[in-house]
Amino acid sequence: MTNYKDAKYQLPASGITSGTLADARISESSVTQHAATFDDNKLQSNIALLGFKTAVNGSLAKYNLQDQIIDEYEDATGIDAGASTNERLASGVYDGVTGTDPTGATSTDTSVSGYRIEVLSAATGSLVIPSSGNVDILVVGGAGYIGSILTEMILNKGWRVRVLDNLIYDQDSLSSFNKMDRFSFINGDICNLDTQVKIIEDIDCVVFLAEIVGDPSCQYLPQSALKTNYLAVSSMANLCSHMNINRFIYTSSCSVYGSNEKSNDLLEEDSALNPISHYARIKTMSEKALFSQSNVLFSPTILRLATVCGPSPRHRFDLVVNTFARNAFFDKKINVHGGDQSRPNVHVDDVANAIIKIIDSPLKKVKKQIFNLCNDSQNFSIIELAKMTQSIFPKCKITTDDNIDDRRDYRVSSKKIKD
The whole model's pTM is what? Predict the structure, then answer.
């Protein structure tokens, strides 16, 4: 069977036993039909896993494969789908573009112009990587601290990447990719709905990194924080669900755990949340909004990031390890407020690598899942981090005081994402 780029997900072949079911693909210039078989008793359960979207005169509409909407399919295509369920399925309404024909039947092409039906199985499918490697990833906030590293890794995978960023911090973090055919950049604001609609076209997966970072910034710019960190996430997820863009990776934060009374316990993804900052509360809201919109055709994955550290083309010095390193080198002094508060830590390269692995994983393993992105061995108190920095910069002095502005205190388990 022809390996189409838009055949994003593989249909599970379980339950195919008897009867006739046609598997059709409507592209802009052709329909590819295949014979497959379903047991009538299992038909509805299999149909529940399927969906298709059709583009008619530029308008995208999402449907579930149910009898009541096949009439619309007939009106759009001029194909008579028959009266009964079996007749309708046999006439070319499809089971899914799998890249293989489960019954070994041959295919025939029929010309139909102006339409595209994209077949998805969001239940157990995995991203189909065509032989050409042409997978399109949208990275929102892709010129930032994590995004600039992730963009390079995506290009190294042979995939295409489209970056949206408003470049409020750095104009040049992605400049080395400008001449690459598989790289495209849009300077824009993710809070603009017109921009969202524009950037989502022909995308296979969305990685949402854009945000107003940290509680000081969120307190200083509360309306911008609400728009960028919550409303833009929610509207983008709604749009992806409507467009059947199943893969949506959102970077949340371990800050949602807040302050844990038993700070030596390793918190897991189902541990109670206790956000104590405006930033963390908005992250919690966004997580709930994403999962509230999930369905068989939209399966978000949430990564709760530990405190990120390490160098990047768009570097940040407002993160604890990076801040200590900067102060130790330039000022020969590290100021520690409190010191007993614990933080999980993760290198920025590991964050980007984890996102690549999520994109490349079978959907059934990552759909509607939350993962702590950290390392058990990298849970340290603030004073421990200061002393580690001092060991690298021995001329640096450490001063401490009891002025604790940030009372987050938690250690986090990475068992789930390792499994």
Answer: 0.71
